[in-house]
Amino acid sequence: MKLVSLTPFVMAGARPPGVPAALPSFAETNLRTYVRARDGRDGLWFLTLEVSSPVMLAARLIGAPYHLGHLTLSRAGDVVTYAGARGHGGRSYRVVVLPGEPVQPSPRDVWLTSRWRAFTRGCGVLWQTPVEHEPWPLRAARLDDLQETLTREAGLPPPAQEPLVHFSDGVHKVRFGVSRPVRPTARRQG
Length: 190
What we know:
Layout: E1 4-11, E2 26-36, E3 42-51, E4 66-68, E5 70-76, E6 79-85, E7 92-102, H1 107-113, E8 117-122, E9 125-132, E10 138-148, H2 150-153, E11 166-168, E12 175-176, E13 180-181
C-alpha cells in the first residue's frame, strides 16, 4: 500500500541555496508520497506543490511540480483552516482541523515527518535535494472538513481508510541544499 500525504503549512525562514537571507513566509501545500532510493535513503516524491511564493517556481528546472496559487491559513478560536486554489476552476482544497494536545511521535510519525531529501525528475535526470529542518513538534488533531481535488487530479483513487491527522506548530530555519543528479548505483556483474 502506498502512503500519500496532503500537507498544508506556512514556510517560515526558508533559505534556498545561494540566497543569503531567508525568504518571507509563504503558504505551501504538498501532495506527496514516500520513496526509497536504490542506495536505501528515504525521501519524498511530490505529486504536486501548491505555493503562494513565485520564487519557488524556479525549482521547476529540476522537475519540482510547483504551481502558483492563492493559498490561505486562517484561525478562528482553536480551529485552523487551510485553503488553496490554482486559477479559476483549477485544483483546490480546504482542510479544517482542530489541533489537540502535543503527542510523543510514534515510529510511524517520525517516519512520515523526518524526510531529509526530496527526489524529482527534470531534464531527463533524477535529482535529489537535501532539506534541513528540526523535527516537527506534533500535536493530535481532528479533521473537521476536507474538500480537495488534488488527489483526483493526480490520478489517485479515493482513500481506502480514514486519514491519519496531525498538527504541528511548525519548524523554522528550513534550508534547502543544492540539488544534485542521483548517480546510478553500480551493479555487480558475474
